[in-house]
């Protein structure tokens, strides 16, 4: 959580006025009684209303100074989590905070449902909810995506090259054929000329 906290505060510092305003509004919304601090009850009520299932002890971990309430800075961290941690564990249903495992087959083939496991569910051997056993961690997945993008780029380039070559070949062939055709037309014109000459000559003798 300490790492997430640092990143969240850095993001907040760099964020637009609009985002800052948004976080202030969120704080007011969660702080139902308006006493400028969020109690566990208020926090749970908000998560229930928004159907956000956070890992157990999330409130305690967010509450850095341990006073039993979340202040504005601690809500900034919460805001960052709900904005960026949108993957939930198929084992326990909680939002995944850190490293996680995902089924690579479902990730690449299913568009709507992905099968993920948080670290502790993965360790305890829970199922990701599909019939596959190809779980990879999120870093490996990212690397896989990079490779896929690279492969696709190479394939696209190869495809473009082939199309280019076919077009060149077609243009050349067409040119050859049209030259043949022009030659044939020239021959035909010559033949007609010869015929006309022959007719003229024939007329002279008639
Ligand atoms: Zn889990
Ligand atoms: Zn799967």
From TrEMBL:
Residues 18-53, 56-85 form the EF-hand domain. One of its GO terms (molecular function) is calcium ion binding. Gene3D superfamilies: EF-hand. Transmembrane segments: none annotated. InterPro entries: EF-hand-dom_pair, EF_Hand_1_Ca_BS, EF_hand_dom. PROSITE patterns: EF_HAND_1, EF_HAND_2. Keywords: Calcium. This is EF-hand domain-containing protein.
